[in-house]
């Protein structure tokens, strides 16, 4: 996806939904879509240099990685206040709903990843 092209978020969600359609329960696919949307949107808004999404399927889990090409610094947790609308809740959702998540620094940029267990990703 290109420079802050938020229209690409829907495309990436659809691709993940299609991939997980026969591999997981609908609820697990919905969680994966939501978290992917949050992480990709963060990458596009905060780095303004595009992002690359990778989905790795295992026998009992799926791992989603979103790589940006700006800063290798980990995203800072943000506690939104009531007046922020929907702003600032992405990483809170990832921390709450993912079975595992983290940030891996790269030579250029970083990868924010999450894993969801209980997805029969190789079906």
From TrEMBL:
Cross-referenced CDD domains: HATPase_RsbW-like
Name under which the protein is recorded: ATP-binding protein
Origin species: Streptomyces finlayi
UniProt xrefs under InterPro entries: Anti-sigma-factor_SerPK (IPR050267), HATPase_C_sf (IPR036890), HATPase_dom (IPR003594)
Organism placement in taxonomy: Bacteria, Bacillati, Actinomycetota, Actinomycetes, Kitasatosporales
UniProt-recorded Gene Ontology molecular function terms: ATP binding; protein serine/threonine kinase activity
Keywords on record: ATP-binding, Kinase, Nucleotide-binding, Serine/threonine-protein kinase, Transferase
Domain Histidine kinase/HSP90-like ATPase: 4-114
